[in-house]
Amino acid sequence: MNLRKLEKGDCQLILNWMKDEREFYIITGGTLGTYPITADALYDQYVKQEDTLLTFIAEDPEHTPVGHFALRIKGNGNDRLCYVVVDKDKRGQGLGESMVKAACRYAFDERKAEKVTLAVFQINEPALNCYKKIGFDTDGPNSIFDFMGGKEACYEMALYRRPNETT
Ligand SMILES: CC(C)(COP(=O)(O)OP(=O)(O)OC[C@H]1O[C@@H](n2cnc3c(N)ncnc32)[C@H](O)[C@@H]1OP(=O)(O)O)[C@@H](O)C(=O)NCCC(=O)NCCS
């Protein structure tokens, strides 16, 4: 899985990869504005946060973009994985697992992070299973977020750097 920096032209692709409004809020937790959102507005949201947010596109071996994520630089060795999404037409093929592993490798190897953290809605079984399979464990108190007019619980999860471990 190849990683590269997100470019403005990728934002429409990212929006196309999401199935619907529910998925937009599952992915963003409402932190990237409201649905529907244009590609330009999404890009503006990312630019606003560029001091603390590294945004990526994941490509398959043929260099076709297949997924997106970001790392929020929290300091103290904590890189926070967010905005994880795989092309809706290419899920269930191992791409999400490869992409999240590549994201963690980047955080641990390139950025020397001590841990990668994330928050995932408890109702999001595919993502929860994916993170658990990679080795993320619950870490810290759960939180409650606004979700489409209601409230939903989120697990706080973390993967800690282990010496000599290849992710
Ligand atoms: C979550 C997501 C990134 C997973 O990507 P993916 O490419 O479909 O996942 P993979 O094929 O790599 O599967 C890896 C593991 O995830 C879990 N998983 C994936 N799809 C699943 C599903 N539909 N139901 C239950 N578990 C699932 C499984 O544990 C799977 O391992 P297995 O195949 O050995 O059973 C993808 O479903 C997605 O983009 N979802 C919408 C956006 C989203 O929810 N983002 C996360 C926000 S926190």
Considering the chains and any ligands shown, give keywords for the structure.
alpha+beta, globular, 167 residues, binds coenzyme A, Aminopeptidase, single chain
Summarize the SSE layout with pairings.
Elements: E1 2-5, H1 11-17, H2 21-28, H3 39-48, E2 53-59, E3 65-73, E4 78-86, H4 95-110, E5 115-121, H5 125-134, E6 137-138, E7 143-147, E8 150-160
Parallel strand pairs: 4-5
Antiparallel strand pairs: 1-2, 2-3, 3-4, 5-8, 6-8, 7-8
Helix pairs in contact: 1-3, 4-5
Mean pLDDT: 96
Name the CATH architecture.
3-Layer(aba) Sandwich
The number of E-state strands comes to 8
> What structural class do you assign from the helix and strand content?
alpha+beta
Radius of gyration: 15 Å
CATH superfamily placement: Gcn5-related N-acetyltransferase (GNAT)
Low-pLDDT parts are none
Strand percent estimate: 25-35%
Taken together, the total number of domains comes to 1
Major β-sheet profile: 8 strands, mixed
And the CATH topology? Aminopeptidase
> So how many helices?
5
Order of helices and strands: EHHHEEEHEHEEE
CATH class term = Alpha Beta
Distance N to C terminus: 13 Å
Distinct ligand kinds: coenzyme A
Descriptive notes:
This protein has helices at 11-17, 21-28, 39-48, 95-110, 125-134; strands at residues 2-5, 53-59, 65-73, 78-86, 115-121, 137-138, 143-147, 150-160. The chain has one domain (2-118): Aminopeptidase (3-Layer(aba) Sandwich). It has 167 residues and is an alpha+beta fold. The radius of gyration is 15 Å and the shape is globular. The protein is built from five helices and eight strands, in the order βαααβββαβαβββ.
